[in-house]
């Protein structure tokens, strides 16, 4: 009987660990502009590849200032706003605001990490093709 109880509790712990909806707020830091071509892309090419990457993943993106693109993702009842700052060699994605993502200053909905990583991967892929 004790063995059944132990296995039941272990199964419950495993099931509940998958239900965690928030993670510590990730900081991806500065990312190097990926480039495997002969020439380094110029600032306008980088800006366009960032916007193209965001739009291709369903984000709305617009230039706020030189070296800054604001991107907004709306999925069902969730909204995420990030600021992408960039220069000729690096870019950085920073959290700006969100709705229904349980952000409390230290943690956020776990889907945030997937959305931002997907955006970073697409930006890198676009710059490689530029």
UniProtKB/TrEMBL annotation:
**PROSITE patterns hit by this protein:** PROKAR_LIPOPROTEIN (PS51257)
The protein's name is: Lipoprotein
- According to its UniProt entry, this protein's organism is Pseudoalteromonas ulvae
């Amino acid at each position: 009987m004790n063995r059944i109880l132990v296995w039941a509790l272990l199964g419950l712990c495993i099931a509940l660990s998958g239900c965690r909806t928030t993670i510590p707020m990730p900081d991806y830091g500065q990312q190097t502009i990926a480039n495997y071509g002969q020439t380094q892309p110029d600032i306008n090419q980088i800006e366009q590849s960032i916007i193209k990457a965001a739009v291709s993943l369903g984000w709305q993106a617009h230039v706020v200032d030189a070296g800054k693109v604001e991107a907004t993702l709306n999925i069902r009842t969730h909204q995420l706003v990030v600021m992408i700052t960039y220069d000729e060699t690096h870019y950085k994605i920073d959290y700006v605001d969100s709705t229904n993502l349980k952000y409390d200053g230290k943690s956020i909905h776990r889907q945030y990490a997937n959305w931002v990583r997907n955006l970073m991967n697409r930006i890198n892929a676009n710059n490689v093709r530029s």
